[in-house]
Amino acid sequence: MVKTSELRTKDVVNVVDGRRLGLIGDIELDLEQGRVKSVVVPGASRFLGFFGRDRDTVIEWEQIQKIGQDVILVNVAPFTDQTHSS
Description:
Layout: H1 4-7, E1 11-14, E2 20-23, E3 26-30, E4 35-41, E5 57-60, E6 64-67, E7 71-74
Parallel strand pairs: 1-7
Antiparallel strand pairs: 1-2, 3-4, 4-5, 6-7
């Protein structure tokens, strides 16, 4: 059994590219089914938080590969930089 408070203290790491995504900021529940639907990792702050932050990463429960003592391993498609220079 894992408590939600324990989940929020574990690093989330993507097994696809080894990238650390951050800590869980929120958990989405399906109350009708009585199960966790997804976890949300907040986007990183930009320049001391003055310019907002990146988009949150929503990870479906099925994408979680392993919940370990210190980390949560997930299988999420790698992110690409969507900004282009003109």
